[in-house]
Structures are given as structure tokens and as C-alpha cells.
Design brief:
Distance between the termini of chain A: 36 Å
Shape of chain B: globular
Mean pLDDT of chain A: 93
Oligomer: heterodimer
Helix content of chain B: under 10%
Strand content of chain A: over 45%
Order of helices and strands of chain B: EEEEEEEEEEE
Order of helices and strands of chain A: EEEEEEEEEEE
Number of helices of chain B: 0
Number of strands of chain B: 11
Largest sheet of chain A: 7 strands, mixed
Distance between the termini of chain B: 37 Å
Low-confidence stretches of chain A: none
Largest sheet of chain B: 6 strands, mixed
Radius of gyration of chain A: 13 Å
Number of helices of chain A: 0
Number of strands of chain A: 11
Largest interface: A-B, 28 and 27 residues
Structural class of chain B: mainly beta
Strand content of chain B: over 45%
Shape of chain A: globular
């Protein structure tokens, strides 16, 4: 089954304790992206990657890191989490075409609480 | 800066009624306008999309209406059902090669039985 898999799905942590949310896709997609979803703010892009070793900041990158060492994986790293990073996180992927029709496949989400 | 403005933030519709969600944009380079549907506990998934060369696209009970001159597009859900209760996001992307999607803030739809 074509899918984007995120782990963990739920996590409660404390301020300053480094954590990584993993994301893996099995569709051979070049493009991968991380979003956070907050009430009233919708989906805001954190980081994205157009291909292996190519990453770029989205709209809200502060406090986050990413890496793209393999095509299928795109982990999100919070080096020193803070309570304002409490949110619902989504990983998404798509093919990179030239038609302009960017059809994203999303993971099921990771709910993070930082105390 | 919100490039795609979506309204309302929440919507309650009775079963069988019409649900209407509106979006507006400023960037005239946008030429692909999808709607994503998100059920509780799930990630968003593509529902329906339109290009500006047509004013309307219909798929079952879901219709996108597009007004290029007003830079607005809307999602209409006819004969709304409780199973349509979800969060809906409009989005847009530009036409120059691969461009990332810009999302609206979402509308939480509740269809009452």
C-alpha cells in the first residue's frame, strides 16, 4: 500500500529533551515536507525537500531541523523542544512534476506535547 | 502573510443541506486549486481540484466553483451527510514548474443528523 508513515503517533516530552519524529514514504516521491497544524492557523510548512540532500525552510522553521539522506526518509528533529512546539505534525510527499499539480500524500500525523 | 484566505472557520449544516466553503487568493500566478479533506485522527487527503480554465468542476456531491476575475473559489457539498463531517482545506500553487502548495486555514464542517 502506498503510504507515508510517521512515528511516533503520540509523544509527550519535556522542555529541552531532544526528539526525532520519523517519516518514511514508499512511493519513490522526490518531494517531502513537514507541516504543523494548529487551531485557527491551518497547515503551516516547517521544512521541505525537493530530493536527497536538498532541503529548504518553509514558513515556520525556527526550532526544527531536518535531513534527507535517503529518498524515502525525512526525519524532523527538535533539538530543544519548547511548549510552543506542542502541535499536530504531518509529513507529506509527492512527485516532482512540471504540470503544477502537486498532489500531496500525507501521513496520519504525530501529536506532540511539550511540557 | 496568508496567501489563501479561507472562510468560515467552522460550519454546521443539517443533513441534506448544502455546505459552502470559500477561499480567496491574491497571487495571479496560482493556477492549480485543490481541496483537501481531513477526518479526525487522519492526515489530509486530496478531495477535488480545479484549474482556472474552467469555472466549475463536479465530482459526485462535491463541486468547485471558480471565479478567476474575483480570485475566489469555493467548495460546495450538496446533500451533506454526517460522513462529510471533517476539516476542509483549500490550497493553491503556481504554474511555473513544480511549486509547493499554499494552504488556507481550514474549515471544520459538522453535518448534524
Amino acid at each position: 500500500e502506498a503510504q507515508v508513515t510517521q512515528n511516533p503517533r503520540y509523544l509527550i516530552t519535556v522542555t529541552g529533551k531532544k526528539l526525532t519524529v520519523t517519516c518514511s514514504q514508499n512511493m519513490n516521491h522526490e518531494y517531502m515536507s513537514w507541516y504543523r497544524q494548529d487551531p485557527g492557523l491551518g497547515l503551516r510548512q516547517i521544512y521541505y525537500s525537493m530530493n536527497v540532500e536538498v532541503t529548504d525552510k518553509g514558513d515556520v522553521p525556527e526550532g526544527y531541523k531536518v535531513s534527507r539522506k535517503e529518498k524515502r526518509n525525512f526525519p524532523l528533529i527538535l533539538e530543544s523542544p519548547s511548549p510552543n512546539q506542542t502541535s499536530l505534525y504531518f509529513c507529506a510527499s509527492s512527485l516532482v512534476g512540471t504540470s503544477g499539480a502537486n498532489v500531496l500524500t500525507f501521513g496520519a500525523g504525530s501529536r506532540l506535547t511539550v511540557l | 502573510q496568508q496567501q489563501v484566505k479561507q472562510s468560515p472557520q467552522s460550519l454546521i449544516v443539517q443533513k441534506g443541506g448544502i455546505s459552502i466553503i470559500n477561499c480567496a487568493y491574491e497571487n495571479t500566478a496560482f493556477d492549480y486549486f485543490p481541496w483537501y479533506q481531513q477526518f479526525p485522527g487522519k492526515g489530509p487527503a486530496l478531495l477535488i481540484a480545479i484549474r482556472p480554465d474552467v469555472s466549475e468542476k463536479k465530482e459526485g456531491r462535491f463541486t468547485i466553483s471558480f471565479n478567476k476575475s474575483a480570485k475566489q473559489f469555493s467548495l460546495h457539498i450538496m446533500d451533506s451527510q454526517p460522513g462529510d463531517s471533517a476539516t476542509y482545506f483549500c490550497a493553491a500553487s503556481a504554474n511555473t514548474g513544480f511549486q509547493k502548495l499554499v494552504f488556507g486555514t481550514g474549515t471544520r464542517l459538522l453535518v448534524s443528523p
